[in-house]
Design a protein that fits this description.
Order of helices and strands: HHHHHHHHHEEHHHH
Number of helices: 13
Distance between the termini: 57 Å
Structural class: mainly alpha
Largest sheet: 2 strands, antiparallel
Number of strands: 2
C-alpha cells in the first residue's frame, strides 16, 4: 500500500487528491526539503546501492523521488542548475563513495598478495624420489599381505610387529610426498572486481561471471562511476566563492503549508471544544438535580481557590 502511494505521489504529485484550486498551493517544488536532490541530478546512491553489499542506508529526512520535480529541474539551463548547488553536492558525495570503494579494492588486493606469499615453495618429485616412493609402496603392500596371513594363522604378536613396519613405511612415504600435498590448487586464484570490489574466482564459470556483471551491485557501481565522470566534465569542482541560490518559491510554499497546518490544527481544537460542550450538555440533562448542584458547588469552590491564589500573587 505504501509503495503504491509513493508511486502515485511520484507520478501525479502528493497534492493529487486536493481540490483543483488548491493544487498549485500544495504542489511540491524541487527545492522542497522532502525532495531528493540526488534523484533530480540523475542518480541517487541510496537507490542505486539499496540492499547490496555497499548499501549506504536510507534517505535522511524521508526524502522522496518526485518525477514531476525532476522534469521541472531538467527544464532549467545548466547555468541555472549550478546556482542551486545540487550537482556539486552529488559530485562530492560520489567522489567520497568511489574513493572508499577503491580503498577497499586496494586492501583486498593486498590481502590476496599476502596469502600468495604465505604459500610453501612448490616442490616436484625428482626421478630418484619417485623411484623410492614406488619401492616403498611395493614393500608396504607385501608387508600388509604378510600381516594379514599371520593374523589368520593366529600369530598375533608377529602380525603386530609387521604392522609396525607398515606404519614406518607409510611415514617414509608421507615425508617424501607431504610438501606436494600441502600445496594449494595454484590454478584457483581470487580476483578483485575493479568496479565493485567483489571477489571473483579465476575458475568461475562464464555463467557465474555473467551473473556478477548483470547484478545490482556491479551495475550500481558502474552507473556511479559513469555519473561521477559525467559531473566532472559538465559541472566541475565547486568554486571557492560559490554561494547557493535562495529560492523564494520554495520558502513561500513552505510558509503556506505551515499556515495551512496551523489552520487545520485550530479547526481540530475548535471541533474538540464543541464536542466537549455537547457531551457536557448531554450529561447535565441526564443528571439528577442533586448531581447538578454538587457539580456547581465544586465549580464555585474551584473558582474561589483560583481567586485566592491570584490575590496572593
Amino acid at each position: 500500500m505504501d509503495a503504491a502511494r509513493a508511486l502515485l505521489d511520484s507520478l501525479m504529485g502528493a497534492e493529487r487528491n486536493a481540490a483543483l484550486e488548491d493544487r498549485e498551493k500544495y504542489r511540491r517544488k524541487f527545492t522542497d526539503r522532502t525532495v531528493c536532490k540526488h534523484f533530480l541530478c540523475g542518480l541517487c546512491p541510496y537507490q542505486m546501492l539499496d540492499q547490496t553489499k555497499s548499501d549506504v542506508g536510507e534517505h535522511k529526512g524521508g526524502k522522496e523521488h518526485d518525477l514531476r520535480c525532476k522534469q521541472e529541474w531538467e527544464s532549467l539551463s545548466p547555468e541555472e542548475r549550478k546556482e542551486y548547488g545540487f550537482e556539486y553536492d552529488l559530485l562530492e558525495w560520489l567522489e567520497r563513495l568511489v574513493r572508499e570503494c577503491d580503498e577497499r579494492i586496494a586492501a583486498s588486493k593486498r590481502r590476496i598478495e599476502e596469502k600468495e606469499q604465505e604459500k610453501p615453495p612448490e616442490k616436484k618429485l625428482n626421478p630418484e624420489e619417485q623411484e623410492k616412493v614406488l619401492k616403498l609402496t611395493v614393500e608396504m603392500d607385501e608387508l600388509v599381505a604378510k600381516a594379514e596371513a599371520l593374523g589368520e594363522q593366529g600369530e598375533v604378536d608377529k602380525a603386530m610387529l609387521v604392522t609396525t613396519q607398515v606404519n614406518g613405511i607409510k611415514q617414509q612415504i608421507k615425508d617424501i610426498t607431504q610438501p606436494i600435498q600441502l600445496l594449494p590448487n595454484t590454478d584457483r586464484q581470487l580476483v578483485v572486481c575493479e568496479v565493485s570490489g567483489n571477489l571473483l574466482c579465476s575458475t568461475d564459470t562464464e555463467d557465474r561471471k555473467a551473473r556478477h556483471y548483470a547484478g545490482r551491485h556491479y551495475q550500481g557501481w558502474m552507473k556511479i562511476r559513469a555519473k561521477l565522470e559525467e559531473l566532472k566534465e559538465t559541472v566541475g569542482p565547486r568554486p571557492p566563492d560559490w554561494r547557493p541560490k535562495r529560492d523564494d518559491r520554495g520558502r513561500d510554499a513552505d510558509r503556506d503549508r505551515r499556515r495551512d497546518r496551523d489552520r487545520d490544527r485550530e479547526r481540530d481544537r475548535d471541533r474538540d471544544r464543541d464536542r466537549h460542550r455537547r457531551e457536557r450538555r448531554r450529561r447535565d440533562r441526564s443528571d439528577s438535580p442533586r448531581d447538578r448542584r454538587r457539580r456547581r458547588d465544586r465549580s464555585r469552590d474551584r473558582d474561589r481557590r483560583r481567586s485566592r491564589e491570584r490575590r496572593r500573587r
